[in-house]
Design brief:
Blueprint lengths: L2 E5 L7 H6 L7 E14 L2 E3 L7 E2 L1 H8 L4 E12 L10 H6 L4 E6 L3 E6 L2 H12 L5 E5 L1 H4 L8
Antiparallel strand pairs: 1-7, 1-8, 2-3, 2-4, 2-5, 5-6, 6-7
Length: 152
């Protein structure tokens, strides 16, 4: 297995925090390629959820731990510390790169979560099953061969 297809309810939540719960986020540098979220801070609606293109674990955790936000569109890639970041457009790019995790969200409710680690995939699967997400399904390499690794 290489991927989880996840469907979430359309609305405010802290889905990223729920999905990534229990994963050692400190092992990675977080590359933010697309960031379309809404959240409230000091009673004002804001965007620019992550505030940077590359985040360390502390910065990433601070963002995803917000109490509630509306996730519209997102493209996040996680690389082990001190590894080269490269452009990833296809499954082949992902498999040949040092990238360990790809998180794509489109249209607020459709999430693709890729990981080279079965342990991480199992953890995320259990997180989603325990959080009343609408759907969570494992996908094999064959299932995702033609997919783009860029959130549109």
């Amino acid at each position: 297995m290489i991927c989880l297809d996840i469907k979430v309810k359309n609305g405010y939540s802290n889905y990223l925090n729920k999905i990534f719960n229990g994963i050692d986020l400190f092992n990675y540098v977080w590359e933010i390629n697309a960031d379309d979220f809404l959240y409230s801070e000091n009673d004002k609606m804001k965007g620019n959820f992550f505030g940077a293109d590359v985040l360390n674990a502390e910065e990433f955790i601070k963002c995803i731990s917000r109490e509630s936000y509306y996730m519209i569109f997102s493209d996040i890639k996680a690389y082990p510390l001190d590894k080269e970041r490269v452009e990833i457009n296809t499954l082949k790019d992902f498999l040949e790169s040092s990238c360990e995790i790809v998180f794509l969200c489109t249209d607020s409710i459709y999430i693709e979560f890729y990981s080279k680690s079965r342990k991480i995939l199992d953890k995320v699967y259990n997180n989603c099953k325990g959080s009343n997400f609408e759907k969570v399904e494992f996908k094999s390499v064959d299932d995702v061969l033609g997919r783009s690794f860029i959130a549109w």
